[in-house]
Write a structure and sequence with these properties.
By secondary structure, the protein is an all-alpha fold. The chain has helices spanning 3-15, 19-26, 32-53, 64-85, 91-98, 101-111, 120-140, 146-169, 175-196, 205-233, 235-238, 245-257, 263-279, 286-289. Helix content is 73%, strand content 0%. The two termini are 25 Å apart.
Amino acid sequence: MSRRGTVLFAAIGVIWGIPYLLIKVAVDDMAPSVLVFGRTAIGAALLLPVAASRRQLRPLVAHWRPLLAYTVIEVAGPWLLLATAEQRLTSSLTALLVATTPLVGAVLAWSLGDRGSLGATGIVGLAVGLAGVALLVGFDVGGADLPSVAMVLGVAAGYAIGPAIFARKLAGVPPLGVAAVSIAACSIGFAPVAALNLPSSAPPAGALLAVAVLGIVCTALAFVLFFELITEVGPVRATVITYVNPAVALVLGVAFLGEPVGLATAAGFVLVLAGSFLATTHKSRSRVLSGSAVPVAEP
């Protein structure tokens, strides 16, 4: 990997590792819908002019149906579920559960007809990953938090299905344009819901700063850098970022929020990442998950 590619990879690994911390800070003082609206409104205001200047918006008009599906499944649904789940779960546990996305993607690839995507190694990977999830849920989650766990696993499913929609229905469409329009559509959709859930008093500066950083850095800047990374190292190698983000989130949750990490959490984390790696190392995985510059909406 070139020096530029290494710098981009490191930057995105950190940028997409901090949203879990920021979401946790923000949802203590505002409704999830308000958080999602604020983040996407800021991100759209910054990304749309960039996509327009690169003439990446007009080609999307003919693809509005799959684009809408992509927006709901990859952006709107997951970001709302994440914010809602983090009202009860720690940021680090949420990140570790989202790390199951490659496992879901491997099963999705197999179910869509890529029968070579789950060989013997892939099946072992699924078993290892599921064991990691069992450790995380069994030791770190109380019964009242299980619905929140289900929400996060729903996020992982959305993050796995979204790229499949893009690869099958939006191939050849400008990816930055897709990201910009998806985020803008999300902000428009959440505007009336957010208006009904505005806090009775102004949120503290920390919460407002968290939303601003989510919109400016973790959404707008992150997507621009991610596509630069894809150009530099290719889409398949760029997806390795999936294995870096949870580690960053875990460290930040412990360092800034004092979130506990026991032996079971550490073991579960290792098993989830090892299982994800094994389940997605087969040569056929790129056909569904990373056959093009897919605009993956990280948290």
